[in-house]
Amino acid sequence: MEITKLRRSRQIASWASLACVAVLLTACNSSTSSAGSSPAGTAGAVSTPGTSGPITGPTTPPSAPGTPGPVTGPATPPSSPGLAAAPTGAGTFLAAAQDLNGTLLHEPACGGYGCALSGDSTAFLSRMTWTTWSGSEAVGTGRYKLDDCNPDCAGGHVYSVATVVTLSQPVKVCSSSGTRWVWSHASFAFPNGLPAPLRGQNAPQNPWTFSGLIAASQQSCG
After folding, report:
1. What pLDDT sits at residue 85?
2. In angstroms, rounded to a whole number, what is the distance separating the alpha carbons of residues 94 and 115?
3. Distances (CA, A) of 26 to 19, 33, 97, 111
4. How many structural domains are present in the chain?
5. The predicted structure's pLDDT at residue 8
6. In sequence order, which residues have a C-beta less than 8 Å from that of residue 135 and are 6 or more positions away?
7. Which one is predicted more confidently, 66 or 176?
8. What is the pLDDT of residue 195?
9. In which element (H, E) is residue 125 found?
10. Disulfide check for 130: which of 89, 140, 170, 190 has CB 3.0–4.6 Å away?
């Protein structure tokens, strides 16, 4: 009877030992599963929600509206030596024979045969004295030599008529030497009148606009 009890006691102890080992094995397996359940890469940086990515440096704030770009240096105005922005008395001339490539005359006395006003040598100013020479007009007294072109200009008679001439409407002329202003309009008064051959249809043009000179001046500055 005692032997039987002893055997049962040993069996119970053995079962208890086995149960303890099973409990320990379960606990160990549970611990291992927890340790391996973390996904790979959890040791890296975790992105913050709403962050587009790592910031590599300070961002540059945008320029304020209306703010000019970087200034590289002061602007240099174009040089304009010898250029006349507006007509002045010293910078205004009479173009001989209305030729801008010819001689430009400033308060000319027009000695000798005189200063040609026309390109065909039929009208000259002579023995001039200028009472006004400004940027807007020039007024002078002297003689106006006119060819009556009868029977033709080469064989016509030249009359010397007392005159008061007013030059006006200067136009700008551009060249490599600078800007000049040249008279483009002339009007005449004849204190002693005109000789009969220069009256009526033969009268000189008065006033006289130098249209060819004006066109040439526009082309020079175009």
Report:
1. 77
2. 9
3. 11, 11, 125, 135
4. 1
5. 52
6. 86, 87, 88, 89, 91, 92, 170, 181
7. 176
8. 96
9. strand 123-133
10. 140
**Within-domain flag for 75:** no
3-state secondary structure at position 75: coil
Strand (E) or helix (H) holding 123: strand 123-133
92-105: pLDDT as tens digits: 999 999 999 999 99
Indicate yes or no: pTM above 0.90: no
Question: Burial level of 204, CB count in 10 A (0-12/13-18/19+)?
Answer: buried
Neighbours of 140 (CB within 10 A): 22
On whether residue 59 sits in a domain, the answer given is no
Locus of tokens 């010397």:
160
Per the domain annotation, does 5 fall within a domain?
Answer: no
* Structure-block tokens of residue 205: 């043009």
Nearest to 140 by CA among 168, 112, 100, 181: 168
Distance CA 106, CA 104 (A): 7
Residue 66 CB burial class (10 angstroms; 0-12, 13-18, ≥19):
exposed
Position 54 in a domain: no
How far is CA 1 from each of CA 8, 9, 161, 189, 201, rounded to the nearest angstrom? 11, 13, 178, 172, 175
Domain that holds residue 196: 92-220
Query: 140 to each of 148, 192, 210, how far by Cα in Å?
Result: 23, 16, 18
